[in-house]
TrEMBL record:
Membrane-crossing segments per the record: none
GO biological process: alkane catabolic process
Record's compositionally biased regions (Low complexity): 24-98
Region described as Disordered: 24-110
Domain of life of the source: Bacteria
Signal peptide segment: 1-23
Name by which UniProt lists this protein: Lipoprotein with Yx(FWY)xxD motif
Keyword terms, alphabetized: Signal
Length: 229
């Protein structure tokens, strides 16, 4: 009887020990699991942080690249604009120079030369248009006697530069017009055209009103009557 009780006691002790060992093992496994979980979270967090850090660095580099690209494009646009302006600045300067050449200078002076006509060798301009003098003008005067309606039929012989003589005797000069232009003179007499002379060599104005005359190569007015048509 005592032996049986002793055995039951030993069995109970062994069972208790087994339970204790089982509880310790479970706790250890739980700790390991917890550690593993913690490690996984830590690893994941670390990986996320690293990834975030890498992405941030990449983003910074991308932003820097985008900024550099924008800066480069802005610089190119600025250069293009400057070139256009220069370009644009260079085109305006050329136009001004051309206008200046057209408005004056010795090369643009009215040319007086001679042409063979029905009245002999007379003075014409570089385009062959006949030149006239007006008896009502005073030699050496600083103004023309032809004004108002007179100018509608007898346009002034103007020049934008120094007038030139080719084969014509006499002294060439200019006088100022009312609007600031230059009328050519020959031996002190203002010179004119006649509106009814339509082509080179025409002398339709000869003797009109007994006061308008063509000019000979010697610089003197020609008073011969106009040839009949």
């Amino acid at each position: 009887m005592k032996t049986l009780k002793a055995r039951k006691s030993l069995v109970a002790i062994a069972a208790a020990a087994a339970l204790t060992l089982s509880a310790c093992g479970s706790s250890s496994d739980s700790g390991a699991s917890s550690d593993a979980t913690t490690g996984t979270v830590a690893t994941a967090t670390s990986g996320t942080t690293a990834t975030s850090s890498d992405d941030s660095a990449a983003g910074g580099a991308g932003s820097s690249s985008a900024d550099d690209s924008a800066t480069s494009e802005a610089s190119d646009d600025s250069s293009s604009a400057a070139s256009s302006d220069d370009s644009a600045t260079g085109g305006a300067a050329g136009s001004s120079a051309d206008d200046s050449t057209k408005s004056g200078g010795g090369a643009d002076g009215l040319e007086l030369e001679t042409e063979s006509t029905a009245l002999g060798e007379i003075v014409v301009d570089g385009d062959g248009k006949t030149i006239y003098v007006f008896d009502k003008d005073t030699k050496g005067a600083s103004t023309s006697a032809c004004t108002g309606k007179c100018l509608g039929l007898w346009p002034l012989a103007l020049t934008s530069g120094t007038p030139q003589l080719k084969g014509v005797s006499g002294t060439v000069g200019t006088i100022d017009t009312a609007d600031g232009k230059k009328q050519v003179t020959l031996d002190g007499l203002p010179l004119y055209y006649y509106v009814k002379d339509t082509k080179p060599g025409d002398v339709a104005g000869q003797g009109v009103g007994g006061v308008w005359w063509v000019i000979g190569a010697d610089g003197a007015k020609v008073t011969s009557p106009a040839p009949s048509k």
